[in-house]
Amino acid sequence: MKKKLLISCFLFAALLVQASTFNREIPVRQHGKEAGMFLDLGKISLGTLNDVEEKKQYLSTVQLEKQRIQNYMLRMVYENAYILYKQGDYQRAQELAQTILSIDPNFKQAQTLAKQANYMGTYGTISEQQVLEAKFQETVRLYDSGRLVEANDKLNEILTIQPANAKALSWKQRIDYEIAAEYARRGNVAEKEGNYQQAVDAWYNSLLMRKDDPKLVAKIAAAEEQLRKQQVQDYMQQAMNFYNKGQYVEAYSVFERITKIQPGDPRVEKYMSQLRNEIAAGYYTAGVDSYNSNRFDQAISYWNNSKKWGADTNTMDGLIRQARDAKESYRVARSQRIREVAREAEEAEKAAQEAAQRAEEMANRIDEDLETLVADDPTTGLLIPNTGSKTTTTTTTTTTTTTQAGSTTGINETLPGIAGGPTAPVSAEARAASRAKYIEGLDAYNQDDYERARQAFIIAKQLDPGNVDAELGLMRVEENLR
């Protein structure tokens, strides 16, 4: 159906061009249109083509078909332009030739016709024969200089204006023969050097001018066979290098190129079969590893690829269904776990807040206890238990006894903390406060804040003279402060 539609479109476009010529209407290029007057076949839907290579081949075929039809239609336009030129309508002939060149700037005959029509329209008093004679003299000059290709192009210009010019045809046959001989010579040299591609190219150029040379055709066939063998050998080496490196997909791609050059090679087919199995097994193993790592989408992708490379379809489809089910179960379990973790985090945060609140309350109670349990003795400057009751201080005149060491001590004065001296009993609250101050001092000591640690240990010792830990901590601080 698509093929019929394409043919109908092409025929319709060709009829439009013919009609425009017979109605003597000069075609005008429309901007935005393919080649000024052709359908943009690239916009045609590719239908059910799924394979990338199929789409590439299809588009390539469409492009070649477009080019072929374009050349055919431009040839028709050129013939009409040449008829106008022979009829003396140089302006319209030039305009048609310029239209052709706007589509295909490399259309040499249109180039020659446009120049000749412009020349004849501008200098109408000069005959066409004079123009052709000048071109022929230029041809001879180029030929004598050994510039055969340029001389041949000049003859083509003459034949564009007068296709039946016998003199130009004779010279062209002669020059074509010499050009063909030169190409054949270059091909022979390339063949001897083992450069078969260059030899084939040169011989094909020669064959364009010597179409009936059977020896040349045989040489080309033999060189192409050698070229195929050389290409197959190079590709085989490349494929084996990929295979030895474990790059199986790349190796398989190279083997596919070999089958296009040399179809039916049993050795290549054996390698390709083995590669398909290994690639399929590799994708299967990668899928299993991904599945075990909970990468279910990746596992599904690997198993689909394994199926493409020849793995058992039913087995792979079963694994894919299993992966999809596991993915859903994993998603549900993960969502549930996330909710549980969030709830646990919320509970932990709440517990931490409660613990912080309790710690703050305890600290406040300790501070209150300290204010209640200790007071500053104005006589000694030490912290002593505070009973909380107001006592009446009676100033008495005390008799001091001067010792030989020169120190003075009140008669009724007692120094707390001295071994053997009277020691006041320590309450549970004071012992707890002493322990808290010891912990505070220990924290300051660990932060190398020895002065703050010393003060904390002193207070702890004053609150509980029996706090051995505070006494040891104080000794360590004093050692560090020395």
* Strands, count: 2
Number of helices: 16
Task: Enumerate the spans where pLDDT stays under 50 for 5 or more consecutive residues.
Answer: 1-8, 14-47, 373-377, 380-422
Give the mean pLDDT.
Answer: 75
Shape: elongated
Q: What order do the SSEs take from the amino end to the carboxyl end, as H and E?
A: HHHHHHHHHHHHHEEHHH
Strand order of the biggest β-sheet: 1-2
Structural class: mainly alpha
Q: What gap, in angstroms, lies between the N and C termini?
A: 105 Å
Oligomerization category of the chains in this entry: single chain
User: Helix coverage percent of residues?
Assistant: over 70%
Radius of gyration: 54 Å
Largest sheet: 2 strands, antiparallel
How much strand? under 5%
List strands and helices in order, with pairings.
Blueprint: H1 2-22, H2 52-86, H3 90-103, H4 108-122, H5 128-144, H6 148-161, H7 166-192, H8 196-207, H9 214-244, H10 248-261, H11 266-292, H12 296-308, H13 313-373, E1 374-376, E2 383-385, H14 428-446, H15 450-463, H16 468-481
Antiparallel strand pairs: 1-2
Helix pairs in contact: 1-2, 2-3, 2-4, 3-4, 4-6, 5-6, 6-7, 7-8, 8-9, 9-10, 10-11, 11-12, 12-13, 13-14, 14-15, 14-16, 15-16
Notable features of this structure?
mainly alpha; elongated; 482 residues; 72% helix
Structural notes for this entry:
By secondary structure, the chain is mainly alpha-helical. Among the domains are: 1-124, no CATH class; 264-372; 426-482. It has helices at residues 2-22, 52-86, 90-103, 108-122, 128-144, 148-161, 166-192, 196-207, 214-244, 248-261, 266-292, 296-308, 313-373, 428-446, 450-463, 468-481; strands spanning 374-376, 383-385. It has a two-stranded antiparallel ribbon with strand order 1-2. Strand 1 (374-376) and strand 2 (383-385) form a beta hairpin. Helix 10 packs antiparallel against helix 11 (266-292) and helix 14 runs antiparallel to helix 15. It is elongated, with a radius of gyration of 54 Å. The relative contact order is 0.03.
